[in-house]
Amino acid sequence: MARRIRLDLMTSGIPQTGNGNSFDWPGGRGVFICEALSGGTVGLQVQGPNGTWIPVIHFATTTDIAIASGKMANFEIQAGPIRAVAGVNTGCVCSVTGVPLTAAG
Description:
The protein is an all-beta fold. It has strands spanning about 5-10, 25, 30-35, 40-45, 55, 65, 70-75, 80-85, 95-100. Strands 2, 4, 5, 6 and 8 form a five-stranded antiparallel sheet that branches. A four-stranded antiparallel sheet has the order 1-9-3-7, with no helix packed on it. A hairpin with a 5-residue loop joins β4 and β5 (about 55). The protein is globular and about 35 Å long.
């Protein structure tokens, strides 16, 4: 079985507030999951061609991703830098995991 990419965007090692570090996403479908959050929501952003950070939308909708603790969201985006945005929240633990397009992957 092929390995799926997993990026830990924010971890429990450091209280997370505001814009997280950017990570290189290889493109395609993924799941964004938030395991811990002290309140509010956390969003996912992708960097546009001119360097602007743009909210990622839920797969097959026009709604920006903003999830609470214990929730997840599906997305599909091009390759490039991504980051989590936690607003004024602290203690956020969230990651993204790639989803293959076929059952074989």
